[in-house]
Amino acid sequence: MKLFDTLAEMGHEEIVMCSDPSVGYKGILAVHSTKLGPALGGTRFWEYATDEEAITDALRLSRGMTYKNAVAGLYLGGGKSIIIGDNKTKNREKIFRAHGRFVETLGGRYITAEDVGTSTKDMSYVQMETKHVAGLAGKSGDPSPVTAHGVFRAVQASANRKWGSDSLEGKTVAIQGCGSVGSYLAKELHEAGAKLIVSDIDAAKTEKVSKATGAKVVKGNAIFTAVADIFSPCALGGIINDKTIPKLKVEIVAGGANNQLLEERHGDELQRRGILYAPDYVANAGGVINVYGEVAGWDAQRALDKADDIYDTILKVFDIAEAKKIPTYEAADRLAELRLAEAK
Hints:
Largest sheet: 6 strands, mixed
Radius of gyration: 19 Å
Order of helices and strands: HEEEEHEHEHHEHEHEHEEHEHHHHH
CATH superfamily of the largest domain: NAD(P)-binding Rossmann-like Domain
CATH class of the largest domain: Alpha Beta
Low-confidence stretches: none
Distance between the termini: 29 Å
CATH architecture of the largest domain: 3-Layer(aba) Sandwich
Structural class: alpha/beta
Shape: globular
Helix content: 40-55%
Number of helices: 14
């Protein structure tokens, strides 16, 4: 990787490589943009095959946060941090306090929060070393309910555009991933009258959702061939790809996972097949809205109300896509870039 060329190409302001061998800490802090405000994005704790893979992920995720925050109408830039290692380790306090010390060196240009492999308790360790952290227990806490509500509103907006009504009564939704976001989403969809098909690598999670909602459980790749109206990816990214797209028997893709398209061309392919795609970083912005609410001093209800705006934002993205005759993922980028240009 030609790092400086990559930074220039992707528009990053700063990347910091961090190390504290005394506690087994290796980290990456990536600040993509502070045009709209301090760069906010969570800390991902993951065991990468190579350091280059970790850097690539940090750069990609931090840029994604810039676009997500811009589209959500928040006064925040985009950043992300990575801790490289086994996220099941018991040595958490020392590692996260080391992480907090490095976050502090950026002087508020970057605010961190929880992400994959981290928790509100981990953020409390970070807080021992820096005030530039959110997603804390007793404050905004677990963002999953707000994230799920935003995704639910994105599903409703997509249904409105596809079928002319917000109603999900009798519609079948296939949810991949029954973690925190997937399970909360399943609850809202069930209450709205939708029929559910669910899958997860953890059988206990699907069983819990099935008991609560009556969802049909399928295993592994069967979720891609499920006959449904809507496919909702709520696990890890890259799930919309050359292998899965031909299997889909749905009219809408709208879910909570990040980076659902393995490559941008897969968004083009969804459009070619007549499948309406709600761009992931617009649909799942409820999580960052929840964290921003903590930074801005909002109460829980105001964050939930702000997540409702995702409905209108999704419709705006669809309007741009139709007017410009471009795929919806590209229209979402256009909307984000417009706000960033106005700030500039």
